Amino acid sequence: MLVLDRDAADAAYEQIASQVRSAIATGQLQAGTILPGVRTLASDLGVNLNTIARAYRRLEEQGFVRIRDRSGVEVVTPARQATREAREGLEQELWEVLVRMRQAGMSVADLRRMVGAQLGRLERS
After folding, report:
1. Same domain, 63 and 21
2. Could you report the per-residue pLDDT of 96-123, keeping only the tens digit for each?
3. How many CA atoms lie within 13 A of 11 on its CB side?
4. Contacts 24+ apart (CB under 8 A), 90-97
5. What single string gives the DSSP state of each residue in 66-113?
6. Residues 69 and 93 in one domain
7. Are 17 and 66 contained in the same domain?
8. Could you tell me if residue 6 is inside a domain?
9. Are residues 54 and 24 in the same domain?
10. Distance from C-alpha of 100 to C-alpha of 118, rounded to nearest angstrom
11. How far is residue 118's CA from residue 71's CA, in Å, rounded to a whole number?
């Protein structure tokens, strides 16, 4: 399920976290699913154990998984409503991405189209 691009600018742990986030958002991974153990996934992907552990910790910090001692990493049910702090932080992240996209030469119309397309992906999952 996970594929690493060794030539990518993103670190391996972030590639792993990103792919798991996408799989959760699109319904490929359901709440309650137990993810592969750190050793197993590290071996499968040919990376250091710490790379997988770091990806899992990142996912836990972002609310996608729960790390349970000795019983694995479990996908959690999405929050029913964002806290004020979460909303503010995520809005800031969104702003920063939009600003970078604009600076890269994308028009506001392009941004609207792209955001709409991504929202459509979420609605279909």
Report:
1. yes
2. 999 999 999 999 999 999 999 999 988 8
3. 10
4. none
5. EEETTTEEEEPPPPSS--HHHHHHHHHHHHHHHHHHHHTT--HHHHHH
6. no
7. yes
8. no
9. yes
10. 17
11. 34
Count of domains in the chain? 2
pLDDT at 125 over 80: no
Calpha distance 31→68 (Å, rounded)? 14
Whole-prediction pTM: 0.80
Q: Which residues pair with 68 in a beta bridge?
A: 72
Residue 94's domain comprises 84-124
* Strand 72-75, strand 65-68: pairing: antiparallel
pLDDT digits (tens, 9 = 90+) for 16-53: 999 999 999 989 999 999 999 999 999 999 999 999 99
- Return the structure tokens found at 11: 């670190």
Assigned token pair, 3: 């594929």
Query: Are 40 and 69 found together in one domain?
Result: yes
